[in-house]
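Predict structure. Input: Aspartyl/glutamyl-tRNA(Asn/Gln) amidotransferase subunit C, 92 residues.
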Amino acid sequence: MSDDAVSPEEVRHVAGLARVDLDDDEVDRFARQFADILEYFETLDEVPEVDREADLTNVMRPDEERDSLDREAALENASESEDGYFKGPNVS
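Output follows.
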């Protein structure tokens, strides 16, 4: 795939949709990188199709209904709780 497979205008359009400001050098670099990515996807077309159903096996255990902890027992070892819920640090 040639480097002009993704035009600078397309890169600017996508950057605009993502609200990302790019200078001219970044636009050129991303155009080349997008072209490389599209080329990788084209190699998937070369993978032969499989003509049979895959033998799938469920490796997960079956769900089992069990009693859960009551609220007081669940909060017993919590470093902080508030109004019956776990309390974590503030995220700023």
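The two ends are 45 Å apart (CA to CA).
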